Amino acid sequence: MWDLIEKINWKKTGIFAAGVLFGTAGVKVLGSKDAKKLYTNWVAAALRAKECVMKTAVTIQENAEDIYEEAKVINEERAAAVSEEE
């Protein structure tokens, strides 16, 4: 029996035990009311950022559509001018 105890790597066992201890404490901290409040604020900030990005994307898309329509008109006018010259 003493041979078995002597073969145990106590350094690794201690590191494992410390990891379990810190992991358990970490779960308690992450589940606390303060942590939940922090998560809620982070999610709220992410939603605000998403809204800002979406507004910018819509503006860019609208501008791109306007540019496309104006380019089509220019090409139609140019094509009409070329056909009148011929």
What does this 3D model show about the protein?
This protein is an all-alpha fold and 86 residues long. The protein has two domains: 1-30; 33-86. It has helices spanning 2-7, 10-30, 33-85.
Structural features:
86 residues, 3 helices, elongated, mainly alpha, 93% helix
Query: How much helix is in the residues?
Result: over 70%
Radius of gyration: 33 Å
Largest pleated sheet:
none
Q: How would the global form be characterised?
A: elongated
Q: Which series of helices and strands comes N to C?
A: HHH
The computed structural class is mainly alpha
As residue ranges, the low-confidence spans are none
Give the CA-CA distance, first to last residue.
Answer: 106 Å
> How many individual β-strands?
0
Number of helices in the DSSP assignment: 3
Can you tell me the number of structural domains?
A: 2
**Assembly level:** single chain
What amount of the residues lies in strands? under 5%
The pLDDT mean sits at 87
Give a summary of the structure in a few sentences:
By secondary structure, this protein is mostly helical.
Topology:
Blueprint lengths: L1 H6 L2 H21 L2 H53 L1
